[in-house]
Structures are given as structure tokens and as C-alpha cells.
Write a structure and sequence with these properties.
223 residues; alpha+beta; Aminopeptidase; seven-stranded mixed beta sheet; 5 helices; 20% helix; 31% strand; globular
């Protein structure tokens, strides 16, 4: 599917148009929702005027723009894209799972341990997020929905506090989120670090198949 080669662009031009901030020829999410910017295809030129309103700390995934003098892209580790190819999921045991409020600050605190800077105060507005708590108090595991392409949706923010790994929480939460997607007629997909073999093995065991590795880079301001 061609839109998967450029998922941020596809999401911002379809099911998540309400988040779209046109920035010259680029499209981006509000910074407090998600730090992602996209161009339609490789090499689209962005001007200094376009980028002045974006600022530092945004990321590109897939197609990379051409930048004016002084601006640069810091290459980061590749991202493996995986799409669910399994069958219908039965409703998982949700006794331990709690659907979270979109503005729950505990989600930012937990994700900052695993992938700091990517989960923002309003990321919870992008979809449904669910977690598992330690004795009903501290959030110790999380998963949810991020990029939405309409007929496909990204499982994201899959993380477990280091003190609680090995208990199957990630699988349980991912299945919960995936089942909700399937109930809406949406196919799950996800992105995982290309070097994260452990997570990839989990997703393959759940019916995900790798489609491509996407380049990933951070936008760096002049100076």
C-alpha cells in the first residue's frame, strides 16, 4: 500500500486532517500532539520561512525534504514498519486494563523512560490509550493508537516500566488495542526500532509481517 511508504503524510491528509498544520509544502501535527512533520515525496524543498514556524525537535519518517542552508536532518536509527496479517482476535481478558483519559500525565512520564520526547501532552487525543497499573496506582504498562489512515491505524506507545517487564503486559495491551480496531473494521499496523529484535519477535508472534524499513531523522535548527 503506497500510503504506508509515507504514513505521516497519509494520516494528515486523511483521517487526521483535523490535526494538520500546513507548513509550506509540508504537513505537521501540533507540537503538543506529536512531533512529526512530513512532505509528499523525497526531496521536496522547504524554505527557511517554512521551517521558522516549525522549530527544532520535529521528526521526519519516510520521505525526507530538501533543506535550506543552516538547517539539517540528524539521521536516527531506522524504523521497521509491520502490518497485521492475522485473523480476527477474540476479546482479550481486560480485567487488569484501564482505558486512560487523553490528558493523563502518567502516559508522558512512562513513555519518557522508553522513548523520551515522542509522546506529548496531547498525544492521547490521537486515539484510545489503555494501561495497566501497579495495585491501581502507578501506570506501569501502556499501549494505544497514534497515526490513523482511516482503514489502517497504528498501534503505538507500547512500553512497560523496567520493573514490570516479563509479565506479558505488552502483549495483553496490544491485543486489547488491536481488538478495538478490528471491531471498527480497521487493520492494525505499527512501527518499531529496526534494531529492537525482541519487540519484533513479539509482534511477529502476534501475526505482524514486516513491510519496509523507513528512514527516520530529526530536524535541527541553524546554530
Amino acid at each position: 500500500m503506497q500510503e504506508l511508504e509515507n504514513p505521516i503524510w497519509a494520516a494528515l491528509n486523511s483521517a487526521q486532517q483535523h490535526f494538520n498544520i500546513p507548513t509550506g509544502p509540508a504537513r505537521r501535527y501540533p507540537a503538543d500532539v506529536a512531533p512529526f512533520c512530513a512532505v509528499a515525496e523525497q526531496g521536496v524543498p522547504l524554505s527557511a520561512e517554512d521551517l521558522a514556524v516549525v522549530g527544532d525537535g520535529y521528526y521526519f519518517l519516510g520521505a525526507m525534504p530538501s533543506l535550506p542552508q543552516g538547517w539539517s536532518l540528524q539521521p536516527l536509527s531506522g524504523v521497521l514498519q509491520m502490518v497485521y496479517q492475522g485473523g480476527p482476535l477474540a476479546a482479550p481478558d481486560a480485567a487488569m486494563i484501564r482505558v486512560l483519559a487523553a490528558d493523563d500525565p502518567a502516559m508522558v512520564e512512562l513513555t519518557n523512560i522508553a522513548f523520551p520526547g515522542y509522546f506529548r501532552p496531547r498525544t492521547g487525543d490521537m486515539g484510545r490509550y489503555a494501561g495497566i497499573h501497579d495495585n491501581g496506582a502507578r501506570l506501569v504498562a501502556l499501549s494505544g493508537e497514534r497515526m490513523d489512515l482511516g482503514h489502517m491505524r497504528e498501534v503505538s506507545a507500547v512500553c512497560t516500566h523496567p520493573e514490570f517487564t516479563g509479565r506479558g503486559y505488552a502483549r495483553k495491551l496490544v491485543e486489547f488495542i488491536m481488538h478495538g480496531m478490528q471491531q471498527q473494521g480497521v487493520r492494525p499496523m505499527l512501527h518499531v526500532g529496526a534494531a529492537n529484535a525482541r519487540a519484533q519477535a513479539l509482534y511477529r508472534s502476534m501475526g505482524y509481517v514486516a513491510t519496509r524499513e523507513l528512514p527516520h531523522a530529526r530536524l535541527i535548527c541553524p546554530g
